[in-house]
Structure prediction request, 108 residues.
Amino acid sequence: MNDSIQRDELKRRLENGDPMVLVEALPERHFHSGHLPGAINIPHEEVSARAGTALPDKDATIVVYCANTGCQNSRIAAGFLRGAGYRNVLEYVEGKADWQEAGYPLET
Prediction:
């Protein structure tokens, strides 16, 4: 099973309107300064408390990301979700920095 997704595949899925939930695992202040299009914010330390409400469908495709490859928030959040029974969790390991480096827009 491939647990990660690359920038071009994520962009293609977003452009095609593929059903997924995009989750930024950074603190709220970082989310508000700019996030990937359509993303919701669930900081990694809040995933256990908020997943049941924010992510009710355990079969949904969920893509978790954070700042960059050095940031571990998305890995922590994705690991929790998988352990909690979410069946289609992908991590965009390169995160927001990679998205911006490609010239793709952020939402605020």
User: Anything to note?
Assistant: DSSP finds five helices and four strands in the chain. Residues 42 and 54 are 8 Å apart (CA to CA). Strands lie at 21-24, 40-41, 61-65, 88-92. The first helix runs from residue 7 to 16.
